[in-house]
Here is the input.
Amino acid sequence: MHSPLWTDLLVPGIPVIEKILRPIVVYFFLVAALRLSGKRELAQLNPFDLVVLLTLSNTVQNAIIGNDNSLLGGIIGATTLMGVNYAVIRILYRHARLSRWLKGEPTVLIEHGRLLQDRLAQEAITVEELTEAARKQGFESLETIERAELDSAGQLVFTPRRVPTEQDRLAEVLAGLTAVVDELRHLRQQLGLA
Here is the structure.
């Protein structure tokens, strides 16, 4: 009845408590490491960022499972990871300040159509990488962008420049004329001509 098949499937190679603690420690290490490394890793702006994320899971695999290849051990590890993630999400949902602190704030990279070079340098994003990301989202160039930000999840969000319409131009001219008329009224009153 105790065949090697059932032993390999159902008997973890390490104690169950260790099976539970390993994924928890790795989970919090990865959350902290990704938070400290910046939003750029999550944005995957170039092949190097993608390689880091792809190899990260393979790198920590043995730390999670240890010397255990049993089916039950894998299920325990996966269940622990999903449980910890569920708990963290619930805690962050109820505590907005903690959530903002852990996730960080978005970083504005373009404001009013102007590149913010210091912010690009802070996030280690080149103008070429930003231009390529904008093109992937349908923008011809950075000149067509009013605002760009790297959000806390590592997504680049672009807002197009608004092209003024004929109505906008007419409203601007009328506002200017109204200001001139008001100024003339004011001058006439000061000179006693009103």
